[in-house]
Amino acid sequence: MIVGVVFTVLELRNLAITRQTDLVIRLYSTFGSKEIQEAWEKINITEYEGYNAYAKKHGFLEINQVGWFFEGVGVLLNRRLIDIG
Questions:
Q1: Is residue 36 one of the residues assigned to a domain?
Q2: CA-wise closest residue to 43 among 35, 32, 54, 34
Q3: Residue 63 lies in domain
Q4: I want to staple 62 with a disulfide (CB 3.0 to 4.6 A). Which of 1, 39, 71, 73 is the partner?
C-alpha cells in the first residue's frame, strides 16, 4: 500500500514537471514564430512619439500581437503556473 502511494506521488510530481516544461517550450515556440518576430521587429525599429502616434501611423496589429503574448505570460506568472526564473 505504501509503495503504491509513493509511486503515485512521484508520478504526479513528474506529470507537473512535464506539463510545466511543455508550457515553457510552447511559449518559446510562440515567441519565436515568424509572425511575432516580425511584429516585434517592426515595433522596435520604428521611431514614434508614443503609443497613440504609433497606432495612428501603423495600426494596432503588431502591438496587439506582441501585447497579447506578454499579457498571456503575465497571467501565467500571476497564477504561478510558470516561474519567472
A1: yes
A2: 54
A3: 2-78
A4: 39
Which pLDDT value is given to residue 82? 79
- What cell was used for 33? 514564430
Q: Indicate the pLDDT class of residue 5, thresholds 50, 70 and 90.
A: confident
What is the amino acid identity at position 58? Answer: H
Report if residue 62 sits inside a domain. yes
What is this structure's pTM?
0.67
**Which cell goes with 44?**
522596435
Query: Contact, 30 vs 66, CB < 8 A?
Result: no
Whether 9 is in a domain gets the answer: yes
For 57, residues 6+ apart whose C-beta sits below 8 A from its C-beta are 48
Q: What's the structural domain count of the chain? A: 1
